[in-house]
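User: Hey, quick favor. My workstation is busy. Could you predict this chain's structure for me?
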Amino acid sequence: MQKKEQKNRKKQKEQNWFDKSWKVIGGLGAVVALLVGLFELVDIFQGLRAGTETLPTVTSSSTPFPTDTPIPTVSPTPTLRPFQFLAFPSQVRVGQDVEVILQARPGDVCVLEYYTPNGSKSSTDGLGTVTVNSQAKCVWKWHVSANTEPGLATLVITIQDIQETYKFDILPKE
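Assistant: No problem, here it is.
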């Protein structure tokens, strides 16, 4: 009877070891799969931020012969713009501060020029050239002088070789 109990205990230990081994192997497999997925997501995100990754867009078309089953076709999605606004005024009152924040690609150099409603280029502090910060942002802050004439102001933003012009209203002081 004792031999049988010892044999059963030995068998149970072997079975416990076998079960635990598979749990460890399964857990390691899950960790590896998560890491692979994470690295792929990082690669995709970095490609999108750099504007080099082109993700496919699937569209359907049908063929009349021999079947009417839709056949997917792949067409590239447009690349991302070099930046996007996080803060941009639609209007500012004379005597107030203005803040423009862009999200841009790491390493980009951003230039902001501000033209008052009368067309003169401003050289006030807070304008000009900035480098993308650690949060992938270009930030400009400046004060609209109390003697600025109300009207439509112009911002010219240049990033790398792309230049865009934007307008916003300068309102009279209250």
